[in-house]
Amino acid sequence: MVRVLLPSQLHAYSGGVSRLEARGAVIAEVLDDLDRRFPGLKFRIIDEQGRVRPHMRLFVGRNAARDIRAPLADGDELLIFGALSGG
CA–CA separation, 21 vs 34, rounded Å? Predict the structure, then answer.
């Protein structure tokens, strides 16, 4: 299992939950697992071409990951961050 931490702007799509566990050997599989339980969540992170949306950032532990084919190991932590903007 992979631990997943979601930013506050995605809590509406996860039933208000910020920390989840999901299965998958790569980031894409973890996002698919989450999307099965929380439909629409993956689309907020990944675009129609399968790329991480420009305003989203993914980290496996402390390492940035831009490719959803990046491998994950049991016990890894996937951190999902959303950009903040304002004026």
Answer: 8
